[in-house]
Structure formats: structure tokens, C-alpha cells
Amino acid sequence: MISGRTRVWWLLLLGCLFTAPAFAQYPPTDGAGAPPFGEPADGQAGAAQPVAPQSAAVAPSASSSDRYPRSPGGFVRGNMRDPRGAASRGTGAGWYISLFRFAPLLALFFLWTHTTNWVDDDSQSLKLDAGNWNLAVLAGGAIGLLAGVTVPFFGLGLLGSILAYGLPLGLYVKERNDRVPDSAKVMTPAHIQSLIIRAAARFGINIAPNKGARDSALGPPIRFIGKSVSGRGEDDSRSKQAEKSRGFVAAKELIYDAIMRRATDVHLEPKEDEFAVRYRIDGVMYPAEPFDRAMGESIINIFKVLGAMDITEKRKSQDGSFKAILEKRKIDFRAASQGTREGEKLSVRILDQSQSVSKILQLGMRKQMQDQIREVINQPHGMFLSCGPTGAGKSTTLYAILNDIDAMQQNIITVEDPIEYTIPNVQQIEVNLKGGNTFASALRSILRQDPDVIMIGEIRDAETAKIACQAANTGHMVFSTVHANDTISALYRMLDLGIEPFMLASAITGVLGQRLVRKLCDDCKQAYQPKPELCKKLGLPSEKIDAFHRPPDDENNPCPTCGGLGYKGRQGVFELLIINERLRDMIRENAQVSAVRAEARKNGMLYMSEEGLRLVVKGATSLAELQANVK
After folding, report:
1. What are residue 453's phi and psi, to 5 degrees?
2. pTM for the model
3. Is the pLDDT of residue 215 over 60?
4. Is the peptide bond before 530 cis (omega within 30 degrees of 0)?
5. Does residue 168 carry a pLDDT above 70?
6. DSSP of 141-171, one letter per residue?
7. How far from the centroid of its chain's Cα atoms is residue 57's Cα?
């Protein structure tokens, strides 16, 4: 398939070949190169010269100027003849192009070049028959252009051009509109209205019938909702203030593009002469189109206004939050600013609850591990920890666990910093360090609220760890996260925080270690046969391995499903440690790490690397992705 840029150059060349001679109007000649009317004797174009009558018997003169009578209005070279002379027309001699005929066909030609690129990109992104639609739109435009320059009657030729160009384009628009939501449909009354409103808004003219129409027309269909200064509820005045700011449409387009690309974070990073933009998609950073310095600073100010942050403070770190409505769903955002040498940097975390995991079944664990976790979390008391580095999906796992518990029959209270997703029928408390509401102080207060299940966002200090263990030992089920590389390390991390071994041994019931790996795109992944030496090194029987899979090597034809990344979405890799009586005794005795690990293996615990190989064999992820994220 011809690339978009190459196609445009071919279209331009084709247009030049068609239109160059089409509207040139040359004066007729007498066959010998001379004009049919002689020039006036005195050189004045508008002066009429008397012609003496000749008898039919008299032979014509040999001079070509005497063979025909003089033109009464004079001869002027050009495409418009006016008996009053060239001076009265204002076009001047030598103008052979009819603008009245040339301009509409030229506009139609450039519209054709634009829509062929759009059809190519749009059909591939929607997984339509891009090849046939490309051919139809290209052929229709070429036939229309040919009709416009060859049909003798200009009006009829222009009508034929429009029909030949518009028919395949209209059919494509109908098919693609049947496959997209209402907000993404084109050439509908709402879409045409938004185009007109946006065009008028560029000149400072507001012709929108109402505020909703203006919001949808000025940029993508996303509406920002500002946060109040108190941190509770929404502040419509902040939203209006942001709308009036320079760069508001660019800010909407930035966030909308990030959501469409499934990004979880947006980074605005100042450089010497621009603001770099990077998206984090499936845990990997990808660059996007940068902004100039002025526009980048304006966009940062808009997000700071929405998040109730101080726009005058550019050196100290700040954080805030705001919301947006897109396609009838609310999306939460967390913004954090930080002063750097080049200027102020801003990162925006996108928390789209529609994309979150809501059940244990969706975590991707094997069936046996799911049953073991359900058995642990349904115990009347104890402590269940999720461990891993930052960004390993620990909080997502705890949210999925809480959704598996009946919140109507049990009193569930969470303490988080901050609250990422809302859970129905669960009392969620946000930590406020400035207000003195820490994890430890919040835990002391909620223990008097008769909770059955307590979820702590993270155990960071000795006081929080001690209160959590006490709660687990006094009839509460406690869930929390801790930063540790694996399950065994998580136990000793708790001991390092100052927890007495006997207290931890009686409180802990299970530890889940996890990582996230990217899932291969099902539409473009490539199968290959691994070498026997590699299988032996991995501990896999080579005769039972059909194939491994990896991303495609062809970068010239990117997959429309994953956007050419080779991966789409992420998959958890887990390591579950169930605490039995023997392990409790070893923790109470502060046994060696190797001894505790050997006992866990004896009980059937699989390492994360072993669980990950199961995903590689199934074709869910690649070996390179597993080795890069799971050690």
C-alpha cells in the first residue's frame, strides 16, 4: 500500500497534469499564426478604424492584416474579452486562466487529497477493508477530476466531479459511522455544527446555541470538572476559568488522545525551547508531539487551576486532582507538579474506572491460586499483604479482592493515599498529611467504627505496621501493600519495620507477590520455534513446546489493533505464599531466609518466573518481556 505522503505527491502530480492545460484559453489564429483581427493602426486597443469597402472582384491583398476587417473593439490577449478595452476590465492582458472555473475544481482537488489520507488512516484504525476503500476513493476522485476538465459544459462537469468524488466517500462514511459511537460519527448534523462553531470560534465569534454545544464543538468530546479548594466536591468556577485560558482546546486534545491510546500517565517535561510530551502505555513511556514553551506552560496552568493548585508557585512540588466526563463516564485525574532546572514539570495520572479490574477472576491467575486467595480473604481475621515495586498493580489487586467480598453483610473501611477508585457500599478515607490525618491516626479511629474488613493503602512506617498487626490479631481482616521484591522478602520487610516476630507470626495469613507484563497483541504476534538449548535452560521440555510468540518485526505496516506497539494491555504474574503452622513457627523463631523459602517451596509455592513461563508457553506474553520485568 502506498504511504500517505507518497500518495499526496502522486495526487498533486496528477492534478497538475489535469488542470494545467484545462483552463488555458488561447486566441484563435488564421492557420498561419496570426490573429484573426488586425491590430489597430494607432496602437489603441479601443479605437475603431474605418475599413474601405472592396469589390468582390478585387483580389485580396497579400498582406495578412488586410485580409480581414479590423476588430471594432481591438484585440486583447486573455480569457475575458470586453469591447471597452483592457483598462476597464482590470485583469490585464495575458491572463489565460478562468478563476471562476478553476477555483472550485482546485478546492475539490485539495479536499480529495485530504480525505484520501483520512480514509486510509481511519479505515486501518477501525479494521475496515482499507485497500478497497483506498482504491474506491482514489478512483472516484480521479474520475471526478477528469470529468471536471473534459466535459464541455462547466456546470455539468463540476456536478459530475462532485458525484464521482462524493459517492465512494459517502459510502465509506456510512460504513464507519455504523461501527463507532455517536460521539465519533462524522458528517452528522452534530458534527457539521461543531465544525462551524469551531471555525467561528477561531475568529472570536460564538455562534453556539447553548453551552453544551459549545463545549462539544471546542475540541474533543471531553468536559473537565475542577476541584474545590476544600478538596470536597466540584468547583464549576474553576472549570469556567480553565475554559477561558489560552491552550484549553490543546489541553482537551492532549488528555483525549492519552485516553484513546490507553495511557495511564501523561508527562509534560520542560526542555530548552519546547515542552516534551510522553505517555505511559502498558508501563512503557512513549513520546508524543511536543508543545512550544508558551503553549506548554499554558496547559500546565490549566491543569493546576482544575486541580486547585497555586499557579504562581512553580518551584515547590504540588499535587491536586480533578475529573472529566467522556462518553457519559467519569474519569479521575491526579496531577503532580515539580520544579526542575528547565522549568516546571507536570505529571497527570489517569484513573479510568471503566478500564479497572473489578474481580479476582479478571486478574489472570490460574484457578488453583484464585481458590487459595478466596479461602484466605474469607477468613474472619488475619492479614493479607500484596507486595511488589511501584506500578506492579498492588492496589488493583486489593480493589479486586474487596469487590469479591459482600460489602452489604460486612463493614468494609479503607484508608488510602489517595483514593484511586470508588467502591460501592465501602467507606473510603483519604489520608491528609497536612491536616494531620495519617495512616496510623486513621487506623486508630476506624477501629472504633466496628469494621470487619480494613484495607490500608500502604504500610510505610512502624506505627502503621504495628496497628495493622494488632487489628489482625483482634478479630479484623486486614489487607495492605508493602514494597518488597517477593513474598519472602515482604515478611522480613515487616520485621525490619520493628514488628515483633511473634506478633507478625500470629497476624499474617498470606502474601501475594506480583509483577505486570505486557500482553502480546492477538492480531499481530508472531510465532517462532525456540531452540532446544533455550528450553533446557528454562527448564521446559522442548518436545512439548509448540512455539513461543513475539511482537512482529515489520514496522512499515503497523497493526491497527495495537497501534504498532506489538502489545496491548497487561497481565499479572503472581507468587502466592500461604502461611501454615510450620511457617508461623519459623517466623516466630526468626529463621533464615533460605529455610523459610525451602519450606514455602515444600508447600507448593511457585516463583513468579515459573508462573510467567506458563504465560509465555500459552502465547500471552513474550520471553523478552518476562525476563525484563520478572527476575
Report:
1. -130, 135
2. 0.66
3. no
4. no
5. yes
6. HHHHHHHHHH-SSHHHHHHHHHHHHHHHHHH
7. 88
Q: How far apart are CA 248 and CA 270, in angstroms?
A: 19
For residue range 329-363, what is the model confidence (pLDDT) as tens digits?
A: 889 999 999 999 999 999 999 988 877 777 888 88
The string of DSSP letters for 172-190 reads: HHHHHHTTS-GGG--SSHH
β-bridge mates for residue 322, sequence order:
333
Q: Quote the strand ranges of 308-452, DSSP E.
A: 318-326, 329-339, 344-351, 382-387, 412-416, 427-430
CA atoms within 13 A on the CB side of 422: 5
Q: Which domains are assigned to the chain?
A: 4-21+98-180 (no CATH), 219-354 (3.30.450.90), 360-517+570-605 (3.40.50.300)
pLDDT score of 37 more than 50: no
Q: Looking at residue 7, what is its pLDDT?
A: 53
Where do runs of H (alpha helix) occur along 61-98?
86-89
Spatial contact of 474 and 452, defined as CB atoms under 8 Å apart: no
Largest CA distance in the chain: 139
Under 8 Å between Cβ of 140 and 167: yes
Counted residue by residue, the chain has a size of 631
> Model confidence over 196-205: pLDDT tens digits?
776 676 565 6
b vs e for 489-498, b when ≥16 Cβ sit within 10 Å of the residue's Cβ? bbbebbeebe
Mind listing the pLDDT tens digit for each residue in 216-241? 556 778 888 887 665 555 667 777 78
- Asked if 48 contacts 39 with a C-beta cutoff of 8 angstroms, the reply is no
Q: Which cell goes with 600?
A: 514455602
For 347, which DSSP code? E
Cα separation values, 30 from 41, 63, 65, 67, 410, Å: 20, 13, 11, 10, 104
CA dist 127 → 2, 169, 515 (Å): 17, 17, 32
CA distance 147 to 109: 12
Helix/strand/coil (H/E/C) assignment for every residue in 448-465 = HHCCCEEEECCCCCHHHH
91: cell is 485583469
Report percent pLDDT > 70 for the chain.
78
**Residue 434: strand, helix, or coil:** coil
H/E element, 305: helix 293-306
Q: Inter-axis angle of helices 154-177 and 130-150, to 10 degrees?
A: 170
| Residue pair 285/296 in contact by the 8 Å Cβ criterion | no
CA distances, 321 to each of 39, 45, 396, 418, 457 (Å): 81, 77, 19, 10, 18
Q: How many whole angstroms separate alpha carbon 231 and alpha carbon 471?
A: 30
Residues 238, 245: Cα–Cα separation, whole Å: 11
CA distance 343 to 314: 8
- Distance CA(31)–CA(26), nearest Å, equals 13
Which ranges of 36-153 does DSSP label H, i.e. alpha helix? Answer: 86-89, 99-125, 130-150
Contact 462, 498 (CB under 8 A): yes
Give the three-state DSSP class for 510: strand
DSSP assignment letter at 3: -
Q: Give the residues across from 234 on adjacent strands.
A: 227
Kind plus residue range of the DSSP H or E element containing 572: strand 567-578
